[in-house]
Structure formats: C-alpha cells, structure tokens
C-alpha cells in the first residue's frame, strides 16, 4: 500500500453504527466522515453492510428501503451507496454492499465445493471469518480513479445495535477490531438524545443503554455522534462522557441543519477529525492535513441556504408517499437547481390521482393533484414497475407536450412518453407496453429478448452502457457537451419497440440517442418543443454536488427560461457535427482531434 514517509503501511477502518432507533442518518454521517477525511488529504473508500437476507436490493419495493441505487458494474444496492458516491465523488462496486444473503451464499458455495474439509460449518468462525475477509478484500479496490488502494475504509453497519439479524456482523466486527489492531480501527456510534417536550430536557438514558449494548457485543466506541434537535448542552455532554466512558471532546452533536451539505463542516467545527485521526494513529503523517479543507462544501451549503427564487418541479410517480424512493432523482434536481441559483420546490404528484378513475372516486384528490401539476414549471416522470399509475403518467406526459411545459421522462417515463405520442399523434388508441397489456395490437414498448421472465433478481439490463448520439444538433447532445457518446447507468427489462421507430420518427418524434447496435432507443426528444426529453437510462445516478447531471440541468434551465444560454454555451463548431457523425460510424482514425472518449476539443484546447 502506501509507503512510509507520507502514508500508512496498513489500511485504516472507520466503523459507523447506530443505536436507539433506525433512521438517525448513519449513511449521511458515514458519508460526511468520508468527506472530512478526504479533506484532510486521505483517500477514502466505503462499504455498506445490510443485514437482510436478500442477496441485493434489486427485488425489494422502494417502500421497504427507499430507492434501489444502480452502480456502474450493474450492482443493485442500498441507497446509502448513492450518498457515498455523491459525497466522495467515487465509483463503487457491487461488492461494496455486503448483505447477509451474499455472505451466506458465499459460505454455502464453499461448503458445497468441499473447501471446509469436512468441518462443521458454523456462524462462528465461518460466517464471521467470511465477513472479515470480504471487508479486507473490498477495502483494497480503488474507487477514486487513482491506482492502488485507499488509505481509509469507512464501513456503515445497517440497522440498529441489538437487532437479531445483525448479530453475526457485530461479532465479526468485534473480532475485526482486534484483528487489525489498535490504531487501525475507529468506531463512531450514532445515537439519539431526545428532548421530552413536557420537560424540555435533553435525555441521555437512550444513549447510555445503546452504548452499554454495544460494549456487551464486543465493540467499544471511540466517538459518539448524538442526533438531537439542537446542540448538546455542556452538562449533558459531560453526563454522557461519564456514563459511556467516552472523552467529552469525542462526543459530537449532529443537530438539525438546513441542508445535509452542512454536516462535514459541523463535524469539523467540533473537531471530529482530530478524534478520528487520533484513534487511527494518523497524527504526524506528512500527507495528513491538520485542518480539513472544506471551503467548497461550506460555500455550497451556505449558498444553498440563501437561494430564494423558486423553481417548481412536479414529480409524477408511483412511490411519492416516500421521498427516499426517489432519493437520487431528488438530489439530481437539487444539484441542477443550485447550479442555476434557484430554490428547488418539488411537488409530489401521485400518478394514480390524476387518472379519470380518481376523478370519480375521490374528486378532491384528483383536483389537488391536477392543481399541483398545472402549477409546476417543469414535469418529471421517473421510472417504476407495475401498471399502477401508468395511465396517470401518460396523462402527465400529454399535458406537458400539449402545453409546452418542460418535461423529462426517465426509464418508464420515456416509455410512457412514446406511448402517449403513439396514441395522440399516430392515432393508435390501443398503443401500450406489453408489460401492461401483453395482447396490445400496437406494442410501442416490448420485453427485451435477453431478459428473463422467471427470475427477477439481477436479470435486467443493468449498469453503465454507452449511448451514441444520432443528432448532434439535438438538445441532449448539446447538454452533454457535444460528445459522440455518453455512458450512463441503466435498469430496465422493456424497451421501445424497434419496429415502430420509423413510424414514430416520421410523425415528428426524434430518437437522438441509440445503443451501439442502433436498434435500442436510449434518448427521445420532440425537436419543436421547448424541452421534451426521455431517456431509457437513469442520469440521476451520476449527478454530483457541483457537477449536476446534464439532462437535469436542462430541465431546470428550461423551467426557469434559461435553456437557450445553456445550449448556446455548447454550440457545435462549424463542420464538427459531420466529423462526430463519421466518428460514430467507425471512422475515428481519420480525425485525430476527436479523442477516444468521444468528445471534441474546442478552440481553447479544452474538452467540451
């Protein structure tokens, strides 16, 4: 790994656990700790442990654990890995998400091969050893684009300390802390310090019990991160220190802040980095800064708080009752809004509430949903599975098309835009997806031939795939900087029927992006509309603070009346469209100025 003189000999580990109740924000805390360490000059990677028996998050409803986050390698993982990627600007792998299902499957596979040489396979030591080996192996995978392993691995243990399903992991991590040795392991325990309204006093007993439970499982906290509505009073901090045997300077308050971008600064201001660096024996290393450089994070957080001019986006979806179902989408909208100096206001519109059936059964809900939709500056229809709310999404797409409201459809959102166009413009009243109507005579969307109809888990078209732009003068191509192609993440079983593409294009729909075969539609646009774009991929998964997704930036810009200047900034130089078109057709060697990533160099020699 790193050599002496500036780095460390051994990997350092920071474990984040949670107590008292779930939903305290362990994921955001782990991400913020990573940002803090990165700001000290360290390279950071992350692992999330989910104690459920599922192999991955792919088959779970968003109402169970929030959105299913998709990685470049096609891994369907917990949404916390999205937080890690956004905060740390890294690219994780499917193995960075450990589940009970993965561990037991790996151990059982080894047992079937006879790798245990006749031994009785048990939770201790075989499951616990497998957990520790997995952590050590994955921690060494580079995730920041640089060669070699990171300096520190931040591990988040999902669930709450004391849960039955997490017992093998707590035992394994207790052994692991001893195995890696003192100075290589730091435990941050996130707990709750509630305020009883009748008394108005911060209560420490839940945290005391949580720490006692943690110690009984063989884990000793170095730092306590206490969630509370306000900063801990000094006497409360001293009481927690006394009863939990944690130095007062290592007790951090995670009080409520206007936006989560404040959290790294909140940790820094309470000297959390000093506690972590001390526990990891990193003080004195040349490469480790004494003070974290969080200037960019601090300015972004403060700037976000000062935004006043609103932009309203109606999200017409199936899972609007739980915002975590669309967490990456929400963050992508926020990144774009802040970039354009607008205050994001999201109006959640249940797709089924704008359907005709709701008008009959619940007129009030119907009117309220349509009022939100008609009051929005832009409309976004996200992905989803199943037929509930599909007709409502189609109505939303029709409203945006006919009223020239900026529209972005993602995955299923693109498919319903195609269905609506076929119904309204081509006059195919029975146009549909075979997902919802297997017997439709006008199948605009069909099942992909390589998919499986018997096994749901991991059988979709998943992960990073390449999309080639077909029309370089399109809005999508310009927003992506006039590249010849773009790599985005996918998660779908159905696709636009290639047999109907020519009819749709003759009627005015433009498929501006396709896959390498030219048979799979990736991006659709209405050229004569202010902003009407659908994508088969999920651009929200690669949006980052300070580096918003191109298509979300386009949606917000169109909703604010700022799209033209944005597109003009990406205007294609004369003659370049033809060169890029030839590049796409396999003639790249003729044009040395077009690099292998599909981008052209502008007149300043800078990649657009």
UniProtKB/TrEMBL annotation:
Entry keyword set: ATP-binding, Glutamine amidotransferase, Ligase, Nucleotide-binding, Pyrimidine biosynthesis
Reactions this protein catalyses: UTP + L-glutamine + ATP + H2O = CTP + L-glutamate + ADP + phosphate + 2 H(+)
Gene3D superfamilies named among the record's database cross-references: 3.40.50.880, P-loop containing nucleotide triphosphate hydrolases
Pathway this chain belongs to: Pyrimidine metabolism; CTP biosynthesis via de novo pathway; CTP from UDP: step 2/2
Transmembrane segments: none
Keyword ATP-binding tagged: yes
InterPro entries: Class_I_gatase-like, CTP_synthase, CTP_synthase_N, GATASE, GATase1_CTP_Synthase, P-loop_NTPase
Keyword Ligase set for record: yes
GO biological process: 'de novo' CTP biosynthetic process; pyrimidine nucleobase biosynthetic process
Top EC class for this record: ligase
EC numbers, comma separated: 6.3.4.2
Molecular function terms from GO: ATP binding; CTP synthase activity; identical protein binding
SUPFAM superfamilies in UniProt: Class I glutamine amidotransferase-like, P-loop containing nucleoside triphosphate hydrolases
NCBIfam families to which the protein is assigned, alphabetical: PRK05380.1, PyrG
Function statement: Catalyzes the ATP-dependent amination of UTP to CTP with either L-glutamine or ammonia as the source of nitrogen.
Family: Belongs to the CTP synthase family.
Name of this protein: CTP synthase
Organism: Populus euphratica
